[in-house]
Amino acid sequence: MTAPATRVLLSAAQIEQRVKEMARQIEADYAEGPLYLVSVLKGSFIFMADLVRAFERLRVRTEFMAISSYGTEKTSSGQVKLTRDLDVSIEGQQVLIVEDIVDSGLTLSYLLNLLGARRPRSLAVATLLDKPERRVKPVEIRYTGFQIPDEFVVGYGLDFAEDYRNLRDICVLEEIATSASGAPAAWSESER
Ligand code: IMP
Questions:
Q1: Which of 103, 130, 159, 169 is catalytic?
Q2: Which of 61, 100, 142, 153 pairs as cysteine with 44 (C-beta 3.0–4.6 A)?
Q3: From the CA of 18, how far away is ligand 1's center (Å)?
Q4: Contact, 157 vs 167, CB < 8 A?
């Protein structure tokens, strides 16, 4: 993709700095590792990769799940489907869900119920981005990288119809018409 119509919201340097700070905070809270980090694919893969490498002394396990959302109103349908489950049991473990962005909160609420039922010792959430204005379902987030306004962002793992995940900065996609739900119209059919 050449010259995408984007405006930088968070630069790669800002993200790098904040991810390091988040790692320090998480390390301080989980002195007794191991900590099971559960990345929710695909959007959080870059955040997950940077976060784990920012830990200096915490024992971590990296686990991955994938879910897809469907319906015409992706962010508000609440219809999420598990497409890849964890390979391991998390019973009795300390678990931290690693999310790219929390928008309506419906996806996260689904995940918290799903993983909570597996009886982890603790279960918390780290998200790089939070769009609090769009919350439909209240969810407790322990670690937030940045609160951002209600704009559609791409880059650093986040996509629009599978494009832009490779951008180093987090950018606002400016030239795509948005639907009433606030999400770009074509986005409702894409993967997470
Ligand atoms: P929620 O269930 O509405 O909180 O949506 C969470 C998921 O929607 C995220 O994990 C992303 O995959 C996607 N999402 C929400 N907002 C954006 C955005 O601005 N850009 C890209 N993906 C987004």
A1: 103
A2: 100
A3: 20
A4: no
115 alpha carbon – ligand 1 mean position (Å): 19
Helical segments of 30-134, H only: 45-54, 74-77, 106-116
Q: Smallest Cα–Cα separation from 74: which of 113, 43, 37?
A: 43
**Local mean pLDDT, 10-residue blocks, the chain (192 residues):** 75 98 96 91 97 95 89 56 95 97 94 97 98 94 97 96 95 69 48 51
Q: Hey, is 46 helix, strand or coil? A: helix
How many CA atoms lie less than 13 Å away from 109 in the CB half-sphere?
14
Res 78: pLDDT:
63
| Catalytic site includes residue 103 | yes
Find out if CATH 3.40.50.2020 is the number for domain 13-148.
yes
Q: Indicate the domain borders of the chain.
A: 13-148
* pLDDT on residue 183: 56
**What integer pLDDT is reported at residue 107 of this predicted model?**
93
* Residues framing ligand 1 (Cβ under 6 A): 43, 75, 99-108, 152-154, 158, 192
